[in-house]
Amino acid sequence: MYDFIIIGAGPAGCTAAAQLAERGLKVLLVEKCRLPRYKSCSGVLIKKSMDLVRLYFGEETPLHTMCTPTDNRGMIFTNDKGKEYRFEQEGLNVWRSGFDNWLAGKAVERGAQLRDCTTAVFCEDRGEFVSVTLHGDKTYTEKARYVLDCEGVVGALKRKIMGRTDGYITTFQTFNRGNIELDSHYFYAYLQPELSQYDAWFNVKDELLVLGVSVKEPEKTEYYYEKFLSYMKKEHHLYIEEQTKAEKWLMPHIRPGCTVDYGRGRILFAGEIAGFLNPMGEGISAGMESGYQAAEAAASYFEYPEKVLEAYRDGTASLQSYMRRQWSFVGGIAETFREME
Ligand SMILES: Cc1cc2nc3c(=O)[nH]c(=O)nc-3n(C[C@H](O)[C@H](O)[C@H](O)COP(=O)(O)OP(=O)(O)OC[C@H]3O[C@@H](n4cnc5c(N)ncnc54)[C@H](O)[C@@H]3O)c2cc1C
């Protein structure tokens, strides 16, 4: 019997696992992919993420997780009317495979057991404990007093537990060799409705130009992507020599009010699967903070499961209000996000 089984070795799961193992609890962290695993991401660690890494892991983000340019100097938004807003802020540029693998290693150093290539296929609250069916080389069951489901956006497991699907935004981004007349130290977000149904973006990773769009109707992905490329060619003299990679992914569709699903009984949700996500798809800080708070709540009220969800809700109250403020701020500057006002 484990004290905790944590599902998913992303920022939410790794932070929770590290925190619980640090408290001397018996923790199993399962990850369906082989680590280091790939995650579609712009890989911008905003200052808040850097601060949380320091706070929860007691170290600076290591250089080996970063790509060039290693420092991100902030975000530049262009709103629906073409007006530019600059937000200068210290940040880092990481590859998620290296960053998340480093976080998982920290959880292991603190005593968590890690099983990669292991998918949680089912999970059931049995009152005194939770049984989790795992699929790796074989299919077997483990038990824990609590489960933290940190499986990220798709939520196949959560759907089996709750029988519900949440809305998604589809993201599409390409990596390209070429040139552009923009400063590679910034992340650029474009909120014009003619370029995407949510946002379009540009940043640089290891000299590759990353161009992306997000849409509510997946069949319109290519249409918006082509519009965005034309815009970048015209406005910023984008020249693509060769496209090296293209990838589609999903993000939660955050709605006004930023509703969060904390869990049921002994099964808690953290990170994207719970609905924690900031505008422009910034979810690493929200993942780490919610993973930490879920772990703290369950560890503090270990023998009182009826109090855990309320403690988790209280622990994330400031994160939720930060999310709401941020979403209504972007709703205020761009028509595309107006429903968030
Ligand atoms: C295109 C794009 C760009 C982004 N850019 C940024 C950015 O620049 N900065 C930023 O802060 N955020 C960014 N985000 C958001 C960020 O990637 C997510 O919010 C963050 O990864 C969420 O963390 P998480 O721990 O909740 O989930 P994840 O990081 O998705 O981790 C979940 C883990 O669970 C595993 N898993 C899933 N199901 C199971 C299962 N059944 N059993 C076992 N394991 C399972 C998955 O393989 C995965 O490793 C971006 C997102 C996208 C799509």
From TrEMBL:
Coiled coil: none annotated. GO terms for molecular function: FAD binding. InterPro entries: FAD-bd (IPR002938), FAD/NAD-bd_sf (IPR036188), Geranylgeranyl_reductase (IPR050407). Residues 3-247 form the FAD-binding domain. This is Fumarate reductase. It comes from Eisenbergiella tayi. The lineage of its organism: Bacteria, Bacillati, Bacillota, Clostridia, Lachnospirales.
